[in-house]
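Lab notebook, bench 4. Still working through the backlog of constructs that have no structural model yet. Next entry is a single chain of 108 residues. Request: give me the structure tokens for it.
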Amino acid sequence: MSKPVVVTDETFENEVLKSDKLVIVDFWATWCGPCKMIAPILEEVAEEFADKVKVAKLDVDSNNMTAGRYGIMSIPSLIFFKNGEEVDRIIGAVPKSHITSRLENVFA
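Model written out:
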């Protein structure tokens, strides 16, 4: 069973940029209502695409260096990383179908 991985400023490079899988990073905060709405969707995505995708969560309040580096102004923000490079970005709480269709585009 695959679950989202918690990443920090210190672990971001190894967990995300050096990953051999596509990584979706959820930039979120504990006080963010839309972030709480999207969390179960990301757990489903982590489970369903476990062989091809790693889902990571980064709390922007505790890890502002990484959030700043990627220009996070609104949360939730999902950034898709492939081979250490940003390949897509979704801002705001969106339905699962939107996330999975964007995933399919990245795989294509």
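Notes after review: The beta strands are 5-6, 22-28, 53-59, 77-82, 85-91. Helices lie at 12-17, 33-48, 64-69, 96-107. Flag for follow-up if needed.
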